[in-house]
Specification:
0% strand; 79% helix; mainly alpha
Amino acid sequence: MNGLTMDQWLQTVPAWIYDLPSGLRTLLYQLYQTFVAADRWKWFANGLKITFTVTIGALILGVIIGMVIAVIRTAHDSRRAGKGSIILNILNAVCKLYLTIIRGTPMMVQLLIMGFVIMVPKDDTARMVCGIVTLGINSGAYVAEIVRGGLMSVGAGQMEAGRSLGLNYGQTMWLIIIPQAIKNILPALGNEMITLFKDTSLVSVIALRDVTKQAQNIVSNTYQAYVPYVSLAIIYLVLVIILTKLLGIFERRLRESDRR
């Protein structure tokens, strides 16, 4: 599975490669071992599919969790609890406990606990679900503060206007406040997605074959770490640059729409 030896590989390449310095020939051979031999470029491609799947799934879960927590905490802080003040106090306490635990422990530790103590996945699908759930729960703690900041950025007069129209607190929040807040928090959510994309490299600890795990597998097969790991870093860097550019375009269009 390791492909050709270096001597065998040199017999198959153009003659001009023989004239290259030995270090450059070795580098080209390692590139062959990393990407060409045994179609290992497909390992990176399949790993990227898993990486993006985990990123998108965790972001969706994190937004849902963060939205719920932000609404509960905002409702509690606004002191509009009414008859449900005791329940709201309990929910707020649970949310604060969740935020303290998740933000106070490393994501690696959370993955280890979920992967080897709580869920203990046995196959690739279960490992992917475990990765999505763990990263989603972790992301939710940070998204909650993003959403909470967005809710607080909406003027208090919007809530009063909704109540004057006969809407209750929940209806006003859902129909008036949240739609306005979403536009304010979308750029921050984009940055959270980029952070989450990089953090998916940690799911390799639960043996999920994301792009990082695939690079580790290539190193295990070729006994060469330089090219696989540098290639992995370049892959992440290029994708993050692309995502950052797309996010910048999106933010500019949001600003242009605000001027209209």
